[in-house]
Specification:
This protein has 258 residues and is an alpha/beta fold. The chain has 11 helices and 9 strands. It folds into 2 domains: 6-195, 2-enoyl-CoA Hydratase, Chain A, domain 1; 199-248. The mean pLDDT is 92.
């Protein structure tokens, strides 16, 4: 399915979203953010989807907000879900893998940081250059990067706007894997396959608890399974029983997501 700014492909249990503005280095005007937000909303409703891969067309992942459009119109407009329809989501239930095929700048890097995993091609680069044009990376960049790699490391990028290549991104800790460009999508799909081997409700619970635990007021609340709504659904699910049966019978489980 192709939109005006992106393409969605669903193969088996996986969805691939490709940003489609290569002539503009995949910079996104307002309408593109709303289009992507609608796609993420629809995928969340699809119970057969186990993981989402996000990538860019051409040689670029995404170079951020379309500043040319902003200069011409004076408009800055984002959906409530934030940059790319993803950056402001705090509890998106599906695992999202960023397959970064080239520059991920500003909002593009913020989209990648909003994903759960980042797989980068060797020619990928990352930056939050907003201060160089009079802005700040308030769409998730300055908030998520310190959590991902620690304050001092994050500030080396936030306060300078410097560009980091894929190898340094891996060393800093926000990139999970670096591969040759021709192996990028295969590597991302390998991660998606590994996720699909796990129970869907267990994955949703694990993701919710991992992120929500940052915001809990104390250790006791953080460790209490009742703090996380998805835990009850997981514990009482058919899949939880199936996992135990499959283990005892020494076979692969058949997950139904219920």
């Amino acid at each position: 399915m192709a939109g005006n700014f992106s393409k969605l492909e669903i193969t088996r249990q996986f969805a691939t979203i490709t940003i489609q503005r290569p002539d503009q280095m995949n910079a996104l005007p307002p309408a593109a953010h709303y289009e992507l937000s609608d796609i993420f909303d629809e995928l969340e409703k699809n119970t057969s989807i186990r993981a989402v891969i996000l990538t860019g067309s051409g040689r670029t992942f995404c170079t951020g907000y379309d500043l040319k459009h902003n200069l011409e119109t004076g408009i800055i407009d984002l959906p409530k879900t934030g940059f790319g329809g993803l950056a402001f989501r705090a509890d998106y239930p599906l695992p999202v893998i960023a397959a970064v095929n080239g520059p991920a700048m500003g909002g593009g890097f913020e989209m990648a940081l909003a994903c759960d995993l980042i797989v980068a091609s060797e020619n990928a680069t990352f930056a939050l250059p907003e201060p160089k044009v009079g802005w700040a990376a308030l769409g998730g960049g300055v908030q998520r990067l310190p959590r991902a790699i620690g304050t001092k490391r994050a500030m080396s990028m936030i306060l300078t706007g410097r560009s980091v290549n894929a190898a340094e991104g891996f060393e800093l800790g926000f990139v999970n894997q670096v591969v040759p460009a021709e192996e990028l999508m295969s590597a991302a799909k390998t991660w998606a396959d590994q996720i699909a081997q796990c129970a869907p409700l267990a994955i949703r619970c694990s993701k919710q608890a991992a992120y929500a635990s940052f915001d809990q007021p104390n250790f006791t609340t953080m460790m209490n399974p009742k703090t996380y709504p998805s835990a009850a659904a997981m514990f009482t699910s058919e899949d939880a029983q199936e996992g135990k049966r499959a283990f005892s019978e020494r076979r692969k489980p058949i997950w139904r997501g219920q």
